[in-house]
UniProtKB/TrEMBL annotation:
Protein name in the entry: Elongation factor P
This protein's encoding gene: efp
Keyword Protein biosynthesis: yes
One example GO MF annotation: translation elongation factor activity
Gene3D superfamilies recorded: 2.30.30.30, Nucleic acid-binding proteins
Pathway: Protein biosynthesis; polypeptide chain elongation
Elongation factor P C-terminal domain sequence ranges: 129-184
Organism whose genome encodes this protein: Paenibacillus aceris
UniProt entry tagged with the keyword Protein biosynthesis: yes
Length: 185
């Protein structure tokens, strides 16, 4: 058990049989009444974000999440197959479990699988990935005042807003958190 007074960003907790990670929290001490902790939590089972208020000093269960090194092998229909790099065990995750992550997943990519008591919750991507541009319009010199962007489709199907000098065939470094362009690789 852990006290809500000890919340930290990134902490994983168990509340009402669901697993959450703490995205944000704030200790509030009103002039009248008891202190409380206002928190923003992400459900690791379904990806929903909820706001929850706890009484100061309330205890919640601590969830120990396992991070195992895995390699993405291939897709077959709506199933995506991964292999444990140590034991070579293979298992599949559905498209529904990997909604956002599919924008960055390439075959033979090493990632971390998040699991809790044997239940696979999802995958943890690196902070950024390098993706090849497969389709973009050519940038026309002189048609901007400053900092213009255009759409570029990368090999996973994600469309990234990039500067005008990016061409087809370029390799981009893309942030996996929000899908934004960082630089050319």
């Amino acid at each position: 058990m852990i006290s809500v007074n000890d919340f930290k960003t990134g902490l994983t907790i168990e509340v009402e049989h669901d697993i959450f990670t703490v995205l944000d929290f704030q200790h509030v001490k009103p002039g009248k009444g008891a202190a409380f902790v206002r928190s923003k939590l992400k459900n690791l089972r379904n990806g929903n974000t909820v706001e929850r208020t706890f009484r100061a000093g309330e205890n919640v269960g601590r969830a120990h999440i396992d991070n195992r090194e895995m390699q993405y092998l291939y897709a077959s229909g709506d199933e995506y197959t991964f292999m444990d790099t140590e034991t070579f065990d293979q298992f599949s995750l559905s498209r529904e479990q990997l909604k956002w992550e599919l924008n960055f997943l390439l075959e033979n990519m090493n990632i971390k699988i998040l699991s809790y008591q044997g239940e696979i919750l999802g995958i943890n991507l690196p902070k950024s990935v390098d993706l090849k541009v497969v389709e973009t319009e050519p940038g026309v010199k002189g048609n901007t005042a400053q900092g213009a962007l255009k759409g570029a489709k990368v090999e996973t199907g994600l469309v990234v807003q990039v500067p005008l000098f990016i061409n087809e065939g370029d390799v981009l470094t893309v942030d996996t958190e929000d899908g934004r362009y960082i630089s050319r690789a």
